[in-house]
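User: Modeling request: complex.
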Amino acid sequence: QVQLVQSGAELKKPGTSVRISCEASGYTFRTYSIQWVRQAPGQSLEWVGWINAGTGQTRSSQKFQGRVAFSRDTYATTAYMHLSSLRSDDTAVYYCSRDLPDTGFFDYWGQGTLVTVSS
Amino acid sequence: QSALTQPASVSGSPGQSITISCTGTSSDVGTYDYVSWYQQHPGKAPKLTICQVTRRPSGVSDRFSGSKSGNTASLTISGLQPEDEADYYCSSYTTSNTYVFGTGTKVTVL
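Assistant: Request completed. Predicted assembly structure:
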């Protein structure tokens, strides 16, 4: 069965960076993209960006450009999101999800990773 | 890219039907049939409920249905049940090759 398993919760200080991993299993990793979505406490979902696990092509929301980077290890079937220059308003649960390119929907989701930014 | 607009809350009694709207622009909802809906229970990850405007993924109850007209998409829940109480989010692909989510709607079963 398809599974996306994310790394554990992180507590970070303002100005530092965080890397979250998303290990995929149960499907052909290179065939899909990995989407990243975050949700601040009590807020709605917010799209962060994606990486095509086959080509390595990435795209991010303009809001995060310059601060976010995506990568993947096809041998480990794991995708990564790196967010830098953390601020208190980056405190959120970060989700990875799977997306078959050119279909427009995210069918499987990870369990979420809570990132808390606090001094 | 501004969030898609949804009503903050919708409520209904068991067995009733409710509809949640999702209003975007000609740069997202109005251009693509890549509108999807996600159900989220408290403390849980979102769950795909409707994709490509009207398609229901395997395992999703046929009480859920989707539609679209112009820049507005809609999710209808028929025969409302207690387990339908959750937050619902719409999402759309955009002309900038990005995605945008809705503001979210809390569904309450009275």
